[in-house]
Amino acid sequence: MRDTAAHVCLDESCDHGCRGGIRSKLWIWVALLGAIATTSTVEASDFNTGNPDLKVRWDNTLKYSAAFRTEARSDKLIGDPNQDDGDRNFDTGVISNRVDILSELDASYKGQFGVRFSGAGWYDSVYNSSNNNDSPATINHSSTPSNQFARAARDIEGRYAELLDGFVYAGGQVGDMSAKMRVGRHTLIYGETLFFGANGIAYAQSPTDLIKLLSVPSSQFKEILLPVNQISGDLQVLPNVSVGGYYQFEWREDRLPASGSYFSSVDVLGQGAERFVFAPGGPYAPRISDLRGESSGQGGVQVRWRPSFWHDVELGFYAVRYNDKLPQVYLRPVGLQVPGFPLDYQLAYANGIRSYGVSFSTDLGGANIAGEASIRRNTPLVAGPVVDATPNGSSDNRHNPLYPIGNSAHLNLSTIIFLGRSNLWNDANFLGEVAWNARTGSTDNANRIDPNTSRQAVGLRFIFTPSWFGALPGFDLSAPLGVGFNAKGNSSVVQNFNGGVKRGGDISLGLGGAYRQVWRTSLTYTGYLGTKGVALGPDAHLTFQQSLGDRNFVSLSLQRTF
What we know:
mainly beta
């Protein structure tokens, strides 16, 4: 029997006689949030356990967001069959219509022992509907029709739920030393980076959610991390010296934009990428199983020291080993594995990279100044697709890699400045970071380093946020301005460094609001800077042009924590 309750249409193909279309669905989610506002049980939950030593808290955040493309497709950016799906799939107008839920449960006993679980889920009606692709001959998936997203792309972008944190922790005394430990799925950040985690020590420690980064370009590095299963701990060996370490039981790749999604500019990467097209309507190379990073051999140590003779300065020393979270691409002849096809392609993740670094942090004239310097050994260098002509395609990501490998040096310098009240605002803050990297040597396959890269590169990123308290009754207003720009070079040691555009980047300007610190809303315009062009040229070399040059967008969001 059909449910007689009101039917909410979330599917373009709904057969219940509902009024379809994305525009009408925008208001469904707004109405849902409005209903929450009138519910009396939406406050954050601190449970009364009957034991003052036992604290239990459960928070849930519901968020609605939408985004709109503001510029038509550029012919210059849809000419390559392996770099056009993300552009062709979206006309101007709605590119995202999404609801997210984040749930967090924390329990602690005497503040020393506890558990934490968190999870997230989302649904985006855009990715569960047909798209605007008008070029079946250049589509890079075969599992669904050309005007639908590949199943894997639809799932990660449009209907997904995942466990985030899931760990136990303990703290106490070991002799005269205080100690703490966590076991389970969580994140760590060593060093002092703000935005340029891919250029820093912390790159070794966690995969990143690049979909979120591209959706919100001014996100801090700590906001885009994905947790992994590991054990970590710290020991305060002296009042001014602590040591820490971790060992990971899990390897995860970075979460790239799914093939054909709005922020995807290369169709052969990300979930839903199924084939490399050689010519429109012509032969193609199917994708085979990735050469994944190993789950073992990833860990590190740190020492944090506050010198007694150096006021307000903290120094850090680090050594880490990890397996890369970003892939290399192999194109190769392996007809025996895929009968009837002359080629296939495969993503490979490098293993056994080592990094060593130092950092500092201090307060100077009301500003926090921090920096870190590090070197990497046995790190993959930047290359385009690598053609594997070895017998039976014998290259791998461990004993016989064909991508270039070498050594590198990295430097991040950052500041956080609280500007306080002025005639123009009630409060303001500035977060900025400059990053430099250099290739210091090549140990294997140096001839495969992309010739359009440079030995050194410099990028910068900042966000300036003025705020006005009580702009309306109970309503605080802010206007963040974020800018990312590559000032020099095309990095040969960090893939897609700061967006990967020569003398280009991105800019975002927004308005944010908080009503009684419970409801939060934002409206943001994001534009892309630099010469428009596809990421990979016809010679299979990287162009370092702006592959998102026609995908400026406006986003809005509304959220409530309860």
